[in-house]
Write a structure and sequence with these properties.
Layout (H helix, E strand, L loop, with lengths): L1 H64 L3 E9 L2 E9 L1 H24 L6 H20 L6 H16 L5 H27 L17 H15 L8 H4 L5 H7 L4 H16 L5 H22 L3 H21 L3 H28 L17 H15 L5 H16 L3 H26 L15 H24 L11 H24 L6 H8 L4 H32 L1 H18 L3 H19 L1
Length: 599
């Protein structure tokens, strides 16, 4: 009995020690994993907020005094001197502040939106690299060092677009990367043409014999990044990325890189006579195409992507009209309300089992009141209704355009594009507010605090930043004198667009013929024409070359064919089984032939 008790106590003590060790190991693993997620995923937003606060005071000082600081860093790399120039001016510092503000709110939104994702730490690293690349592009005016930010945006955007690792994401990532590589190659060629100037600084470029060719290369590089016609097909395809990535790409990082580069280069580009006319024509066509396509689209994220394309056309239009300051102003304002649109759309998509079809949604005003309020303000800012951020920039551009433009056809296209913007924005709101709900009944409509906080922050910015920036940012004063009809023409087009959207949405009749509707959804057949049509013949040629030359004749005439020939000879010699003397004579004769061939 005593022996039994000893054995029992020994067993129980071992069991207790094992349970304690397993408990502590589980507690350690859980604590480590939670701390790891906290350090990487949750701290990203706090780090970006800290950088934003650190840059706030010097940016306000730079804006108040309208000062520009140019710093040159002399680096020594393997005993080779290298100069790196940093430019801190009101234009770059304010845009960097907006990029950090949007990135901090988007990362706070992604901490809730992607909380179940296994690779959210990797996602956070990619977003930090994305923001760093954009800041390199902002602060470095050195032509060669500019490639750090320019190529960094292209590479990281490809990785983020293919984040979900499915065939659709891979196809979208390839279209995005290959289209942007066109601009990268032209930018490299323009760098080579700058060799005769003796320096690489953007701010000191002067007119040379290659200036016209270099201007064409730079503007096409900017058009590829900003998705202007005929390079527009990659922008809606990039919607395959996660929604936080779309909020960054379409607001303040990738697509605005081309506009910002054009603004930086504008004093040099404007010296060429055809630059403004060419840019005005392409930007106006981009606005028209994006507006018509968004009017018939049913995918929520694609509608917002096409609205981004339309606003990029507005920025390039103001550059074509010779208004770089207003283009920069509209770029800042657009970044704020477009990031808000994507955050609100991401929450709606998340609440509908990641379904993006507008026809699936409806009657959401009571279920998600904060989200619907924020997205209504964002859409009103997008339309340019008075006293919101979009109004201050778009109204200035349109009023100045009325004074300077002489072509009535271009003026009409721009005004119709304003009406198209209000049409698809009001159609978007009708689909999520007043249309009947078509989703399943067990959808969980909730508004987590981690998402409503950045949503409210961006809403406040979309309301007040327009007036604050117009007061604080140093702009050239210009007297605008137009008639009352021209003054109220943009507001009239906005009202007509909303009214026509309401009439067509209520009567529920097909606006276009089936083929025209199909053409509009495919962006005037630009997607097949700029991707499948152009790539089909080169891909077929590469496939035939691989099957006919690489995998047949080259293999037969090179090492594989020689190896097969030697193996066949060896097999025959093995079956022959001659005497040792025959082997000796065979080897001597082969050696003699080989020596004679060498001589």
């Amino acid at each position: 009995m005593q022996l039994l008790n000893k054995k029992t106590m020994h067993f129980l003590s071992n069991k207790l020690n094992y349970s304690k060790s397993s408990y502590y190991s589980k507690l350690y693993n859980q604590t480590f994993l939670n701390s790891n997620n906290y350090k990487i995923n949750m701290t990203t937003s706090k780090l970006l907020w800290l950088l934003l606060l650190c840059l706030m005071v010097p940016t306000l000082n730079c804006l108040y005094y309208n000062s520009t600081t140019l710093m040159e860093l002399n680096l020594l790399v393997n005993n080779t001197p290298m100069n790196m120039t940093l430019l801190y001016d009101p234009k770059g510092s304010l845009f960097s502040l907006v990029v950090l503000l949007i990135s901090a709110n988007v990362m706070q939104f992604s901490s809730e939106y992607m909380k179940d994702d296994k690779f959210k730490d990797r996602f956070s690293y990619m977003v930090i690299l994305f923001v760093m690349s954009m800041n390199f592009l902002i602060y470095i005016p050195h032509f060669i060092m500019l490639l750090l930010g320019w190529d960094g945006l292209g590479i990281v955007s490809f990785i983020l677009v293919i984040y979900y690792q499915n065939p659709k994401s891979l196809a979208a990532g390839l279209i995005t990367a290959l289209t942007n590589r066109i601009g990268d190659a032209l930018l490299l060629l323009s760098i080579a043409l700058t060799l005769n100037q003796g320096h690489w600084n953007i701010i000191n470029m002067y007119n040379t014999q290659f200036m016209s060719l270099q201007t064409g290369m730079i503007i096409i590089a900017a058009m590829t990044k900003s998705a202007q016609i005929p390079f527009s097909s990659w922008l809606p395809a990039a919607m395959a990325a996660p929604t936080p990535v779309s909020a960054l790409v379409h607001s303040s990082t990738l697509v605005t890189a081309g506009v910002f580069l054009s603004i930086r280069f504008y004093p040099m580009l404007a010296q060429i006579s055809w630059f403004n006319k060419f840019l005005l024509i392409m930007a106006t066509l981009t606005m028209m195409m994006a507006g018509l396509s968004a009017m018939t689209e049913c995918d929520m994220k694609k509608i917002i992507a096409l609205s981004t394309l339309s606003q990029l056309g507005m920025m390039m239009t103001s550059l074509g009209l010779g208004l770089p300051q207003l283009a920069y102003f509209h770029m800042l304002m657009h970044a704020l309300f477009k990031a808000l649109l994507f955050i609100c759309a991401g929450l709606m998509i998340h609440s509908h089992q990641h379904n993006q079809d507008l026809r699936w949604m409806g009657n959401m005003s009571k279920n998600m009141p904060v989200t619907l309020t924020c997205i209504t303000i964002a859409n009103m800012a997008l339309c340019g209704l008075p006293y919101l951020t979009g109004f201050y920039s778009k109204d200035l551009i349109l009023e100045t355009m009325c004074m300077n433009i002489t072509n009535s056809f271009t003026y009409s296209l721009i005004m119709f594009s304003i009406g198209f913007t209000s049409f698809y924005s009001f159609r978007f709101m009708m689909a999520v507010l007043w249309s009947p709900k078509n989703a399943v009944s067990y959808n969980c409509m909730e508004e987590p605090t981690q998402i409503t906080k950045p949503m409210m922050t961006m809403t406040m910015a979309s309301v007040v930043m327009g007036s604050l920036t117009s007061w604080m940012y140093p702009q050239s004063s210009m007297l605008v004198s137009i008639s009352a009809l021209e003054k109220f023409c943009p507001l009239l087009m906005i009202s007509l667009g909303m009214l026509s959207s309401y009439i067509i949405g209520c009567q529920k009749f097909a606006m276009l013929h089936q083929k025209l509707h199909f053409m509009s959804c495919l962006m005037w057949f630009m997607t097949p024409l700029s991707s499948q049509f152009m790539l089909k013949q080169p891909l077929m040629l590469a496939k035939n070359s691989l099957s006919v030359i690489d995998q047949s004749w080259l293999e037969l005439l090179s090492t594989l064919g020689l190896n097969n020939l030697i193996n066949k000879i060896n097999m025959k010699l093995t079956k022959w089984n001659p005497s040792p003397m025959s082997y000796l004579m065979y080897s001597v004769s082969l050696t003699f032939i080989f020596v004679m061939m060498i001589n």
